[in-house]
Amino acid sequence: MTLPLIALSYDGPLLEEKALLRASEGGLFSLEYVDLCRWLASRLKSLCELGESITYVPDEVDSFKVEMSGLLRELHCPYEEIVSGIFKGSMQNPKDHLKLVLFLSSELQAAQIVKSRQVSDKQQDESLGCQQLLLICETLKLPGPRGQSAAQLFFQVQNKVEEVLKDLPNGSAGNPVLKKSLSNEQWEKLQTINTVLASEYECRRRMLIKRLDVTVQSFGWSDRAKARIY
Fold first, then answer.
1. pLDDT digit string (tens) for 96-137?
2. Which residues are within 8 A (CB) of 34 and not within 5 positions of it... i.e. 6 or more apart?
3. Virtual CA dihedral for 53, 58, 62, 68, nearest 10 degrees?
4. How does pLDDT run across 18-69, given as a tens digit for each residue?
5. Does residue 144 sit in helix, strand or coil?
6. Cα torsion at 101, 105, 108, 114 (round to 10°)?
């Protein structure tokens, strides 16, 4: 059970399995358990666009319950008994406390994977874009894009393409798919549609990554931890 916490670079007092099991028995009345949940939540907030923040002040457990239940709903936690149990203060089963840690850990692992891939994809996209611009300039025998603004570069490319098309026989170039120029408003709508589709794809990919990661991590759990969760 502590393997996911090690992978997340957690170095708190609950790294040992016995300590985690003991703290899970105390649940929200265990300061170490609450600190672990708050640590996981704070890391999640730094990676995801979450509206809920988790703060904890001793002797103010009720505010923690409200914030944590709100965070779980925002993360679409599938354990409804845990979400409602925290809010109502009726969650006292150590199994449920371990499930909460497992869920937050899995969400954080998935968020870290997605974030790292986003950075990698962005760098790859930027590199690919530069390569494509260089190829366009080389093909059209234009100077490289370095030192030019995007507007200047595309203006040169457009002029060069129009010159080349004039020298071609009639019918050499096919008709364009989009025959009208899009307005700024239409480009914005197109970008919105693309963002929605990309977000939906990212959500599905995140769910698959999380399921796979939890399955892999489960092979490292001890029999004692498995018995307490399932």
1. 888 888 888 888 888 888 777 765 555 555 566 677 778 888
2. 28, 56, 64
3. 30
4. 888 888 888 888 889 888 988 898 888 888 877 777 776 666 777 888 888 8
5. coil
6. -140
